[in-house]
Amino acid sequence: MYDVIVIGAGPAGMTAALYASRSNLSVLLIERGAPGGQMNNTAEIENYPGFDTIMGPELSMKMYEGATRFGAKNEYGIVQKVVDHDTYKEVVTEDKIYQGKSVIVATGCVHRKLGVPGEESFAGRGVSYCAVCDGAFFRNKKLLVIGGGDSAVEEAIYLTQFASEVMIVHRRDALRAQKVIQDRAFANDKITFMWDSVVEEIQGNEMVVTGAKIKNVKTGETHIEDCNGLFIYVGLEPLSEPVKALGITNEAGWILTDDQMRTTIPGIFAIGDGREKTLRQITTAVGEGGIAGQQVFQYLEEQKVVPQGE
Ligand code: FAD
Ligand code: NAP
């Protein structure tokens, strides 16, 4: 029986593990992949305090060292569900059941798919969701980046170091990305924009992507845009399936908490990008991890108080 089981080793979960273990709690951190979460798919991070700029995988390793420094144990596992037994909780993975007095859900998000023909069949053969993983395969090639948010525009800039041309295809005529990121993209000679446009189909030969069918949403006209690859950044979806049956998510699947990261179930906390909130950043994930790590300590202290008469 652990004092706390943290699900997900992104920046939120790793910070919660650091805070809880430093308070002398026994902590199990369960992760289905490499520690770091979405930071592993990020090239340069330049808005994390203390660093002018740092590569996502490097910050991931630094946070992991911190998370496990005070004794938190890390195990591989894909969590299927969390079961509430009031005074203790069960965390069920594909082959094990762990018990904890409390649980912190830090499962974050996953990239949303476009849902067009060719997206699945050309995944890994020209369709990618991770510039830092796949960008180097596209030296001197033409790329399309789909989306107009921070991810699309920032990763488009990153891709210009490899590609001959990066065309941002956005469904509106104004970007959603932060102004500082937009300005950098507008000033980059290798970046072009196709406004008011959506991808209807991704095309290619048996081996690789050769182009995409694009529709102008204002005129209704379609054309084939030749390209060697597409990087898709059209937003995020919460990874909250393991807690869906607990009734702590909203209709879209985002987990609801109060400002102390408590869900409506005592002893179950949620932090990071999987929460319903407005700013999904490493700094906010880390801040929430700190709050939850401390709140778990409070919760377990309160559980120790035996009610009078017992
Ligand atoms: P995540 O980072 O999503 O981590 C969640 C972890 O939980 C993952 O490791 C996942 O494998 C694990 N997990 C999920 N489900 C399960 C399960 N069932 N069982 C076990 N493990 C599970 N933010 C910035 O501040 N600056 C930036 O420059 C920046 N750039 C970005 C660039 C891109 C391309 C993207 C996609 C995001 C970027 N962000 C940036 C946002 C930032 O990465 C996220 O806000 C942050 O990583 C959220 O942290 P998290 O711990 O909540 O979730
Ligand atoms: P996002 O902010 O939700 O943006 C998604 C973009 O994709 C929007 O421009 C949206 O268009 C477009 N889109 C959505 N569905 C589409 C579809 N079906 N077809 C075509 N286009 C579609 O997602 P994100 O850029 O991945 O960012 C996610 C979070 O991470 C944000 O909170 C962001 O701030 C954060 N982040 C931060 C940084 C940073 O701080 N440097 C970097 C990356 C990400 P509309 O604009 O028309 O809605």
Automatic annotation (TrEMBL):
<keyword id="KW-1015">Disulfide bond</keyword>
<feature type="domain" description="FAD/NAD(P)-binding">
    <location>
        <begin position="2"/>
        <end position="289"/>
    </location>
</feature>
<keyword id="KW-0560">Oxidoreductase</keyword>
<dbReference type="InterPro" id="IPR005982">
    <property type="entry name" value="Thioredox_Rdtase"/>
</dbReference>
<dbReference type="InterPro" id="IPR050097">
    <property type="entry name" value="Ferredoxin-NADP_redctase_2"/>
</dbReference>
<dbReference type="InterPro" id="IPR023753">
    <property type="entry name" value="FAD/NAD-binding_dom"/>
</dbReference>
<dbReference type="Pfam" id="PF07992">
    <property type="entry name" value="Pyr_redox_2"/>
</dbReference>
<protein>
    <recommendedName>
        <fullName>Thioredoxin reductase</fullName>
        <ecNumber>1.8.1.9</ecNumber>
    </recommendedName>
</protein>
<dbReference type="InterPro" id="IPR036188">
    <property type="entry name" value="FAD/NAD-bd_sf"/>
</dbReference>
<comment type="subunit">
    <text>Homodimer.</text>
</comment>
<keyword id="KW-0274">FAD</keyword>
<keyword id="KW-0521">NADP</keyword>
<comment type="similarity">
    <text>Belongs to the class-II pyridine nucleotide-disulfide oxidoreductase family.</text>
</comment>
<dbReference type="InterPro" id="IPR008255">
    <property type="entry name" value="Pyr_nucl-diS_OxRdtase_2_AS"/>
</dbReference>
<keyword id="KW-0285">Flavoprotein</keyword>
<keyword id="KW-0676">Redox-active center</keyword>
